[in-house]
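User: For documentation purposes, I need each entry recorded in a consistent format: the amino acid sequence on its own, followed directly by the corresponding structure tokens. There are two entries in this batch. Please keep commentary to a minimum and don't merge the entries.

Assistant: Recorded as requested. Entry 1:
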Amino acid sequence: MSRIVTIIPALNAAVRLPATLQSLAEAERAGLSAGWILADGGSSDSTARLARRAGCAIVAGAKGRGAQLAAGGEAALARAGAGGWLLFLHADTVLEPGWTGPVRAFMAANADRDRAGYFRFALDDASARARRLEALVAWRCRTLALPYGDQGLLIPAAFYARLGGYTPWPLFEDVDLVRRIGRARLKPLSPRAVTSADRFARDGYLKRSAKNLTLLARYYCGDSPERLARAYRK
């Protein structure tokens, strides 16, 4: 049976990481897990200690989410084995209970095919604003085939290697990879990936969404990831 190596990019994620790992433990119980790798970006809190205690291997030194994903993916390829799969999941994202059933079915149906899957975007916020944003993300995925990294990415290790993996960009490394995967090879998975709404609550749903859309448009127009990352941090 094929199994999954999970890669978690993290930076000062000690508050959110335990819930993420708890949701991933379902794969351990189902016999689907081939290990967890935490790609740490230089955390100054207890992120690495919590991860080690939970059994994660640690990849340290890479700075920025794109570089962390690239480093974690490279380490995961070494342990995935023939027929293995990779799951990339952010440290503030929790997969809903029962996620392993649809994932196991997807893996079985695509064992010898170049296919990747992503989860349904959801926020841990009961407000109407959160529901509207979830609906907008669902539309973006249906219409543009453009899931973001906070929806997770499940991909055969061999396919990931052939694609060249994540590019160590400071921003839009997730968009770059899903564009290389291509619409025909990218499929939605039914379970939800529930992500922290903290950044939207802090910055404002409308303001944050408008900024993200503007940066995405600039990316498609050819602006560099470095310039976009500086604008994102402002």
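Entry 2:
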Amino acid sequence: MTDTYRHQGQRRALVRALRARGIHDERVLAALGAVPRHLFFDPAFEAHAYQDKAFPIGEGQTISQPYTVAYQTQLLGVQPTDHVLEVGTGSGYQCAVLRRLTPHLDSIECSEVLFARTRQRLAAMGIVGAAGAGLHCGDGSVGLPARAPFDGILVTAGAPGLPPALLRQLRVGGRLVIPVGDARTQRMVRVTREGPAAYVREEFEVFRFVPLRGAGGWRS
């Protein structure tokens, strides 16, 4: 696993492009500038790694485009002491970015194939230990009750609505960032829990994600 001067230069150019598109959180930009995105690609497709676009990773899923990763992460507002849950580990790229912002991260993936592949990759990169602590395989649409409550929950797949289980697992003051809509396009939503039964919903830009599968997502 090599990270050359060329790769580092490509990341600097990517960060400049993200800043020009409105990403202003310097911690988020530094995280994207530090994570070698090309290591999440098959070597045959490395030329696509630093283009600002999504790319298929198999099992009907994609690695999100860098702008989307930066946008969601900025909305989440991660602090170093926050306990964060990522729903949809996928390739592990978003997970690696979040780990740059807080060591208190859990990530859950529904695909056993992707889970096994990504756990091995993240361990080889030193992002998680050899045992894959913090990585879980299961239905992320129902969250991770045994590890709740969370200061932040970030969902990397499009949902038909707000999964009730994820709302319940937010700490008071915690934020849920999730794309909500139909199977074609979704609007990015941030929900902040302000009390035991009080939530504030904000809506942002329109995106296109793969469907969130499971009991709290799309069932078919």
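Summary note for entry 2:
The CA atoms of residues 34 and 191 lie 28 Å apart.
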